[in-house]
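Example record used in the benchmark description.
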Amino acid sequence: MDLVALVILLAIVEYIVLVGLVGFARGKYRIAAPATTGHPVFDRTFRVQQNTLEGLVVFLPGLWLFGQYLNPTWAAWLGLIGIVARAVYAVGYIKAAEKRGFGAGVLGMVNIALVVGALVGVIKAVI
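Model output (structure tokens):
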């Protein structure tokens, strides 16, 4: 589970970096708080950060439960793939919204695998 904990922390660090990018974009494009729209690059950067926050609600518990109840090594690998996919998603989306698809697709598959694996592991533990 130590590897799973490391991957969870890496996912949190990735989120913190994305929050920082929003702050940087706010300054660069002069978007004063509390505004959440303005320049198109700021808008996309903000959406990446918000989508990441929304996605962590599935990703983090799925990762932890998969590692706890099924296989921590596989959980860690899936988590790392998810982190890389999120980075690919973020870079693509910030450039142009239509470039987010590949990263989003891979991340979606990782989330499904984590949740289904966690469900299988928990059911096996209960039965």
